[in-house]
Design a protein that fits this description.
Layout: E1 8-9, H1 19-30, H2 47-64, E2 70-75, H3 78-109, H4 115-133, E3 136-140, H5 143-156, E4 161-166, E5 199-203, E6 205-206, E7 211-212, E8 233-236, E9 253-257, E10 268-273, H6 286-292, H7 305-310, H8 320-337, H9 342-362, E11 367-369, E12 380-385, H10 390-402, E13 405-406, E14 417-420, H11 427-441
Parallel strand pairs: 1-13, 3-4, 3-5, 5-8, 8-9
Antiparallel strand pairs: 2-10, 6-7, 9-10, 11-12, 12-14
Helix pairs in contact: 1-8, 2-8, 3-4, 3-5, 8-9, 9-11
The chain binds pyridoxal-5'-phosphate (PLP).
EC number: 2.6.1.52
Domain Aminotransferase class V: 9-93, 177-433
Family: Belongs to the class-V pyridoxal-phosphate-dependent aminotransferase family. SerC subfamily.
Length: 444
């Protein structure tokens, strides 16, 4: 039976955790801090749970330099739950902003308008605007952004979803390239002659396809102070969270499941700009949303950012053990990298990724990296063996298993190989993989 130290695991998620955290977690699950109770047994409203929550928030804020005007929410439902949550929360923001504008303009034109009549006029204008102008922009660069766009279409209707980019079109029907920004068809903002979209969505790192945005897209940068010139940017960082420096202030929402770089499954993180929540932006009344009849809005309360924020992530029962694991991983990164914060982790991630890509590129006849060089993911390294020859790929996996290099099979939808290089994958394990890549290529 292999020990933990002997196995090198490269699975795409759930993914390895630091051994120190797993060992401390095992103790905490039985008897936390000599309290006689395990972390799966205490109330999520207890002082102990509150401290774990506050520490996790503080450590995440430190690592990512999260500005004060952002809320950190711990939720459940995974990355997939957030596909719905962003729609459920940001379409109402679009409606509320327009409701405010409509109300002000109608009152300016007819100052004495009665409340009931005003509400009716506002509703009529909003209904027209929803029908004619509501757009949700999606950049589809891989399987996860595709799924997110499909969820949005399911929730509110495909007529509202603008696929601003379908990267498959530039690559023979497969993911693996991100065409240049001039080719994207984002909904134009006011200064571009349009009315803007409710939000622009992208997946920062496509886990299945090994595609990562190398930097924040220029065309999503703020264009001015005017609401109608702003692009509310949503990013799924499930598989590259806390693996590199991110300018949080460029985003409306960043979200991700914990089970790759942060912790165990069961906790989802969302970082949400405060002015998109009450009291800055009111939630439109359910009756108005019902009347506007936009798919399933308003949605379930457990995905409602305003409710989760108002209740400090404790609206319903939060899994405190899972939260503790995430908090511990973040606390360890804070103490390991000190003033470098997440940039320290970024340097390590880059180094490990370079080692693996270096070995793959050295033997182009044996290994072929799937995505284009310009957008290679540092987290999920997807490659084929001998051009995807079935027998050779099986031989590669069998040889890897013999050395206890595990979890290297690509996602079932795309096949091939995938080495996931998350934060907790030790350099030493990457070196073992690199040695195997060398040996296999040299027939050893
Ligand atoms: C980038 C990305 N987004 C979303 C998801 C879905 O996450 P979950 O399984 O937590 O719903 C995954 C899962 O692997 C993912 O990699």
């Amino acid at each position: 039976m292999p020990s933990r130290q002997e196995v090198s695991y490269f699975g795409a998620g759930p993914a390895p955790l630091p051994t120190s955290v797993v060992e401390a977690g095992a103790k905490a699950f039985v008897n936390y801090n000599d309290s006689g109770l395990g972390l799966g047994e205490i109330s999520h409203r207890s002082p102990t749970a509150n401290k774990i929550l506050a520490d996790a928030k503080a450590n995440l804020s430190t690592l990512l330099d999260i500005p004060d005007n952002y809320e950190i929410l711990f939720m459940q439902g995974g990355g997939s739950g957030e596909f719905s949550a962003v729609v459920q929360n940001l379409v109402p923001v679009w409606i509320e902003r327009r409701r405010r504008r409509a109300e002000a303009e109608i009152l300016k034109a007819n100052p004495g308008t009665e409340k009931d009549q005003l509400n009716e006029l506002v509703y009529q204008r909003l209904q027209k605007e929803v029908d004619e102008e509501l757009k949700l922009d999606y950049l589809i660069t891989g399987s996860w952004s595709l799924k997110a766009s499909q969820e949005a279409a399911k929730l509110v209707g495909s007529k509202y979803v603008n696929v601003a980019l379908d990267a498959r079109k530039a690559n023979d029907g497969k993911f693996g390239k991100i065409p240049t920004e001039e080719t994207w068809s984002l909904t134009p903002t006011k200064r571009e002659g349009g009315k803007g979209s409710a939000f622009v969505y992208f997946c920062d790192n496509e886990t299945v396809d090994g595609v990562e945005f190398q930097s924040f897209p220029k065309s999503l940068e703020a264009q001015g102070q005017d609401e109608e010139d702003e692009r509310l940017v949503v990013a799924d960082m499930s598989s590259n969270f806390i693996s590199r420096k991110v300018d949080v202030s460029k985003y409306a929402v960043i979200f991700g499941g914990a089970q790759k770089n942060i912790g165990v499954t069961g906790i989802t993180l969302a970082i949400v700009r405060k002015d998109l929540l009450p009291p800055h932006t009111a939630t439109p009344p359910p009756t108005l949303l019902h009347r506007l009849n936009i798919g399933g809005l308003p949605g379930p309360v457990v995905l409602d950012y305003a409710t989760i924020a108002k209740n400090n992530s404790l609206y319903n029962t939060l899994p405190i053990f899972n939260l503790w694991i995430a908090g511990q991983v973040m606390a360890d990164l804070v103490s390991e990298f000190g003033a470098q914060k997440v940039s320290g982790q970024e340097a390590v991630a880059n180094k490990k990724a370079q080692l693996i890509y270096g070995a793959l590129d050295k033997y182009p006849a044996v290994y072929q990296v799937v995505p284009d060089k310009s957008i290679r993911s540092r987290m999920n390294i997807c490659f084929r063996v001998s051009g995807g020859d079935d027998a050779k790929e099986k031989e590669f996996i069998a040889g890897a298993e013999k050395r206890l290099l595990q979890g290297l099979k690509g996602h079932r939808s795309v096949g091939g190989m995938r080495a996931s290089n998350y934060n907790a994958v030790p350099l030493e394990n990457v070196q073992k993989l690199v040695q195997y890549l060398e040996d296999f290529a040299n027939g050893q």
